Amino acid sequence: MLHAPHSLAVQSYAPKDMRGGGTVNVDGFGIGWFADDGYPTRYRRVGPIWTDPALERLLHPVRSGAFLGAVRSGTVGMPVTEGACAPFADDDWLFSHNGVVLGWPESVAGLAEELPVVDLLRLDAPTDSALLWAWLRHALRGGAHPVDTVTELVRRVAATARGARLNLLLVGRTVLVATAWSHSLWVRSPGAGVLVASEPCDEEPGWRPVPDGGLLVAHTTDDGASTTYEVGKIAQPEERSQV
């Protein structure tokens, strides 16, 4: 995340493919991982990732089977706070959203109406990403399947917020679900693991673009010895007007 040629730190000030979603990612960052006890741990801060002198020392001893890192380019009108930075988390999941929900908040008011009032009062921040996470978390706690739930969320938001960019990433202990919806997404499988990134972090062979409208699902064995993934689709870009 910090030392690759095109690491997360580099992508914060020199991203290559923002798809019109800004020019830099300097409004905050976060790193999450599953600790030895099996529960997610995260570190989030406001400001550019490269300005944090503690981050490298913090991450150096960490060993985990799953990491999620994100840098933020805040949307106009949304707050620049630690709570607005991914990853969002509960006892079982880490989540990030790369993109923007157009027409916020009216376009997704229907999603908000389905949530318990307490969940709305406890939003990490009054942002589109935080609401998407709250809806997803509520569904997962109710027993919904992670792949089906992520897919449903993308379809519903795309239908009411036309032109939204919805790269969602949901990471559990042994499963990863990612969507490519009007934003760049790449995958590489080095050895027994899987790397998923908005932009390739190095020049190593094997990086594959996830097609626009694509759904990536990865599964890891319980002992972490191997990870496999497959790429399907949510909808083709030309089908979106009918989603």
From TrEMBL:
<dbReference type="InterPro" id="IPR017932">
    <property type="entry name" value="GATase_2_dom"/>
</dbReference>
<dbReference type="InterPro" id="IPR026869">
    <property type="entry name" value="EgtC-like"/>
</dbReference>
<dbReference type="InterPro" id="IPR052373">
    <property type="entry name" value="Gamma-glu_amide_hydrolase"/>
</dbReference>
<dbReference type="GO" id="GO:0052699">
    <property type="term" value="P:ergothioneine biosynthetic process"/>
</dbReference>
<feature type="domain" description="Glutamine amidotransferase type-2">
    <location>
        <begin position="1"/>
        <end position="243"/>
    </location>
</feature>
<dbReference type="InterPro" id="IPR017808">
    <property type="entry name" value="EgtC"/>
</dbReference>
<dbReference type="InterPro" id="IPR029055">
    <property type="entry name" value="Ntn_hydrolases_N"/>
</dbReference>
<dbReference type="Pfam" id="PF13230">
    <property type="entry name" value="GATase_4"/>
</dbReference>
<keyword id="KW-0315">Glutamine amidotransferase</keyword>
<protein>
    <submittedName>
        <fullName>TIGR03442 family protein</fullName>
    </submittedName>
</protein>
